[in-house]
Amino acid sequence: MIDTTIxxxxxxxxxxxxxxLKDIDVAIKPQNIxxxxxxxxxxxxxxxxxxxxxxxxxxxxxxxxxxxIREVRKKIAYVEQRSELDLSFPIDVFGVVLLGTxxxxxxxxxxxxxxxxxxxxxxxxxxxxxxxxxxxxxLSGGQLQRVFIARALAxxxxxxxxxxxxxxxxAVSEKKIFSILKELKEEGKTLLIVHHDLHKxxxxxxxxxxxxxxxxxxxxxxxxxxxxxxxRAYGEIISQLKGAENx
Length: 247
Ligand code: ADP
Ligand code: MG
What we know:
CATH class of the domain at 6-85 and 157-234: Alpha Beta
Strand content: 15-25%
Distance between the termini: 53 Å
Bound molecules: adenosine-5'-diphosphate, magnesium ion
Number of strands: 9
Low-confidence stretches: 242-247
CATH topology of the domain at 6-85 and 157-234: Rossmann fold
CATH architecture of the domain at 6-85 and 157-234: 3-Layer(aba) Sandwich
Number of helices: 10
Order of helices and strands: EEEHEHEHHHEHEHEEHHH
Shape: globular
Largest sheet: 6 strands, mixed
Structural class: alpha/beta
C-alpha cells in the first residue's frame, strides 16, 4: 500500500492581500478520517483548496506521500461545499459517477466498458444503483453526497476530500454516509473532511485539525478535542454557548 501521509509546512494563503491561513505546519495521517474543525470563516475550505493547489496566493510546502500534487492529482477526489455547486446542470447520476473515470482516460478517449463497470460498482457501493438514470437536480442532499462519493470511488482515489458533506442532510442519511466513509477508511483510503458542527466530532474523526487562520491544535481527537482548545479556536462563540446552557 502506498504511503498517503500529507505533510504540510509553512502553509500560508491569502485573498487579495488578506491573510486566510498563517504558517501552518501539520501532517495528515494515512488511512484515517481527519476532521478540519473551526468557526465560520476560519479558513477550513481555504485549507482544503490550498492543499489542492486551488488558491492562487499560497506559499509553503505540501507533499502527498512524498510526492508533489501534480504527480498524484488523479488520485485525489474533492467534493466541494454544496453551496458552491451548480446543480441545475443537466446530467444524470450515472453520468456524474462516470466523470470520476475521466482523469484516467487519454486525451479524447471516451469511457469504455471498463470505466462503465467501475461506475456501476461505485454506485452499488453507496447504495444508489436504482437512481442511475435520475437527474442530479432531483436528488435529496443525502443522495447527492452519496453520488459524489461514488464519483470519488470510480476515480480510484486514494485521498478523499469532502467539504461540509453533512450540511443540510437528515440524520438518517448522515449516518448512512458516515458508515460508507468508515468503510472506505477500512479499505485504506485517507479521508479529510471539513466539518463545523461540534456535536459529532468525537464520534466521527480519528484525528482533528483545529483551525482559526493559524493552527490551534492537531492530533488524535481524544487529545485535541478539549474545552481549552475549543475556547482558543472559537473564542467568544463557545463562551456564548456555555452561557446559554447555564440559563
Ligand atoms: P471556512 O470554510 O472556515 O468558513 P473559508 O476558507 O471559506 O472559511 O474563508 C476564510 C476567509 O477567506 C474568510 O474571511 C472568507 O471571507 C475569505 N475568502 C474565502 N474565499 C474567498 C475568495 N474567493 N475571495 C476572497 N475572500 C475569500
Ligand atoms: Mg467553508
